[in-house]
Amino acid sequence: MIRFCLLGSGSSGNAVLVTTRDSKVLIDNGLSFRKLQANAAEVGEALDDVQAVFVTHEHSDHVSGVGILARKLDVPVYMTRDTFEALPPHIGRIPQARFFEAGEDTILGDLTVGSFSISHDAADPVSYVVESRGAKLGIAADLGHPSELVRRRLAGSHGLILESNYCPDMLRRGSYPPMIQQRIRGRQGHLSNADMCSLLAHIMHDHLHVVVLVHISEENNTHDLALQMAEGVVKRRPVRLFTAAQNRPTPVFELSP
Length: 257
Prior knowledge:
By secondary structure, the protein is α/β, with parallel strands linked by helices. It is built from nine helices and 14 strands. It has one domain: Ribonuclease Z/Hydroxyacylglutathione hydrolase-like (Metallo-beta-lactamase, Chain A, 4-Layer Sandwich), CATH 3.60.15.10.
């Protein structure tokens, strides 16, 4: 069984906590140590036994808290070498930096963390699928294009964390300057609600239990709209749909085969 929780999602900071019977890891940490602790405590979790951090890419909302976390807990941080070399200077020293190539798996106890390349405006961005004892969690966020590789790696997931960043009409009518709008809409930007629906429809299967929509823009989207569009894909299937807020944790979700 896999248990997971979004401790933060969006421009204020991203962090995913994943636990199994024998293992506990974080995927990204863009939150301060105090905020991360508080959000974990809110869902009955502690950080003392976190065994590793896996980084997707070097943008501050994903790594701002990685350095202090690694030093306080003395845990390894896994990432590609190009991501490590592109980390912002304020991250500080990472005592145990561990490198992998995109596409490689890392095994920690009863947990296998599989990496795969994604399209985003970063040095060497990756996302992850996490597997344990037959359960599988797939993550697809901060990417501008749901490639065939992404769809293939997410196939068969029992739980999904999917980006649903923006509504194109709201983005076009909003306050963002054209250059920023172009970045968001581009193939190295973010997934729209429609992109999310297309990806979800492609990988939907009878044993998908939970879908959490993440990185929902506060200016260019709404949680209700993202959920409504996802519901149109899920229809009457027994899939639970949730959205992740920027400043508070989601419930803890449990996945089994």
